[in-house]
Design a protein that fits this description.
Blueprint: H1 3-32, H2 43-50, H3 64-85, E1 99-103, H4 111-116, E2 120-125, H5 128-140, E3 146-149, H6 152-158, E4 163-169, H7 178-187, E5 189-200, H8 204-217, H9 234-240, E6 247-257, E7 262-266, E8 272-278
Parallel strand pairs: 1-2, 1-4, 2-3, 4-5
Antiparallel strand pairs: 5-8, 6-7, 6-8
């Protein structure tokens, strides 16, 4: 056998042993490592919102519709929380001593007013860009908010909470597994707590106005922001939590008045609506 052939054979055996050791090491680590929590996030939606994160606090930017919508949803949250926790709404910080989790917080449009009302706020978002924007703005306002890039599933796996109030506002229609997401959020809720879910109804009216009208006619939000097939009916939300130790109320409709340019509570739940979830 030539020296060249002998060298190639030795090299081949050494390479084979190296591959075998690497394979066994990886298999050993895989067997020992705990499996990661199942995440319901949709990477495409996270990327879409991350790309425009810097515009969260521009009332005339891409998130202008949320700025207009905010007073209506803030009023609903405040009203429901005052009733649930029997607090006096006349004070500046009626929710002092209560904890609140804002899931999918974006740039912090809800987190900041909740902190001003006295809640100890934890706010998470799957987009690190959103969290950076939110944290920078809160710092400028002198507000202490526990911002971090994370998902509901991650918080649950870490043993976070439970929280007196859990907000998931205009989030569930953007996740890949809405049922798993909502059940996870409910598990983060403390006994006696309140969860509020806001989303879009899967109706032809919502397709015409919230999808086609808002994205392609009025240009309120960038085209592709929503997928009508991911809109959810109230009965579907109820079904997601069937068997969980919670009670769901609603839907509570909200509607936009083009004459006044304002959102208000409405009996119409065909487009936007909110649901409350309580745990005793």
């Amino acid at each position: 056998m030539s020296r060249g052939c002998l060298f190639r054979r030795k090299w081949s055996r050494a390479l084979c042993r190296l591959r075998c050791r690497c394979y066994m090491k990886v298999m050993s680590q895989s067997a020992e490592a705990p499996s990661p929590p199942s995440w319901s996030i949709d990477p495409a939606d996270v990327a879409r919102f991350s790309a425009i994160a810097a515009e969260w606090w521009d009332p005339r930017g891409k998130f202008a519709p949320l700025h207009v919508f905010n007073p209506c949803r803030l009023g609903f949250i405040r009203e429901q929380a005052l009733a649930r926790f029997e607090r006096d709404g006349n004070g500046r910080t009626p929710f002092e001593g209560l904890s609140l989790l804002d899931i999918g917080c974006g740039g912090g449009l809800l987190s900041e007013p909740m902190a001003r009302l006295g809640f100890a706020v934890t706010a998470v978002d799957a987009s690190e860009n959103n969290i950076k924007t939110a944290a920078a703005h809160a710092s400028e306002q002198g507000l202490e908010i526990g911002y971090r890039p994370a998902t509901a599933e991650q918080l649950l796996a870490e043993g976070a909470g439970p929280f007196d109030v859990v907000l998931t506002m205009e989030v569930i229609e953007h996740v890949a597994d809405p049922g798993e997401f909502l059940r996870t959020c409910a598990k983060l809720l403390a006994p006696g707590g309140l969860m509020i879910v806001a989303t879009l109804n899967r109706t032809f009216k919502a397709l015409a106005l919230a999808k086609i009208g808002a994205e392609y006619v009025l240009r309120w939000v960038p085209p592709g922001t929503h997928d009508w097939k991911q809109f959810l009916k109230p009965d579907e939300l109820r079904a997601f939590l069937a068997g969980e130790p919670v009670a769901m109320q609603g839907p509570f409709g909200v509607a936009y008045n083009p004459l006044t340019g304002r959102w208000s509570r409405s009996a119409d739940v065909d487009i936007n609506y909110m649901m409350t979830v309580t745990k005793d």
